[in-house]
Amino acid sequence: MNHLLVFGYGFTGPALARRMMADGWTVTAVVRSEATAAKALAHGVATVDVADRPGLVQALKTATAILITAPPTEAGCPGLNTLIPALAEANAFPDWIGYLSTTGVYGDREGRWVFEAGPLSARSIESARRVSAERDWRQVGRGMGLTVTAFRLPGIYGPGRSALDRVRDGTAHGIVKPGQVFSRIHVDDLAVGLAASIARPRAGASYNLCDDEPAPSHAVNAFAARLLGREPPPLVAFEDANLTDAARRFWSENKRVSNSLAKAELGWRPAYPTYREGLTAVLAAESGEDRP
């Protein structure tokens, strides 16, 4: 039986777990807290504590695929630091290892399109750590004969985490910065892309997984407000917005992220090609309706 091991069972992990279990896979989540373990068990996912080395080694012996979602720290990628020694002990060689990175590795492109073969020029510590984690995973993959693939992701949204929530709680803004756009991806489209890569593993590959229409955040928030029957957030010029330093750094990067490679190599197509289809589906899911 095919077996997926997820290191970091947060937002993406459950979406991929649901998809793979529907195809007959078993799933194990590597967890750090009782709350995360309880969530995974409620989803029908087995768990192993990150500190349980014998349990982790045993789980890795049958792992067909491994997904790492946990972000890197100043000590590097926790998934790599934990899993590689355990993989060696288990003498395990899974068919696929997927590492979730960020489109932040590209830095600022002044609104131009970015592709996987382009240069990496991260502008924040967090994104620089992702660059290092990608490099470390590839080096380990080559050294151990493992098929490692990196996925560069923009903002991930879905039920419980979207512009709809920001409109509801009053944190959505109508900030306007001419020419500024952001890419995004619905969590279910992300899961489909990951599953497509699992079916077609390529060692050393990198894929941008994102929707087809980079868009201004104020347009996304306005559409979310209309779906909820509310007034959109008032427009405010970027220069007049009272942003934190972290938010200003986020807004300092402007790029259009291409998903053409994933489409060409994986046969992947987003079911929610723009924020409009995606947010409409999120609202339907949160309302208990069937998704389109």
Radius of gyration: 19 Å
CATH class of the domain at 3-156 and 185-210 and 255-271: Alpha Beta
Structural class: alpha/beta
* Main sheet attributes: strand count, strand direction, barrel closure: 7 strands, parallel
CATH architecture of the domain at 3-156 and 185-210 and 255-271: 3-Layer(aba) Sandwich
Please count the helical segments. 11
Q: What overall form do the CA principal axes indicate?
A: globular
Low-confidence stretches: none
Terminal Cα span: 30 Å
CATH-defined fold name of the domain at 3-156 and 185-210 and 255-271: Rossmann fold
Strand order of the largest sheet: 3-2-1-4-5-7-11
CATH superfamily of the domain at 3-156 and 185-210 and 255-271: NAD(P)-binding Rossmann-like Domain
Integer average pLDDT: 96
The oligomeric state is single chain
Number of strands: 13
Q: Indicate the percent of residues in helices.
A: 40-55%
Q: How much β-strand is present in the residues? A: 15-25%
Instruction: Sketch the topology as an H/E string, one letter per element.
Output: EHEHEHEHEEHEEHEEHEHEHEHH
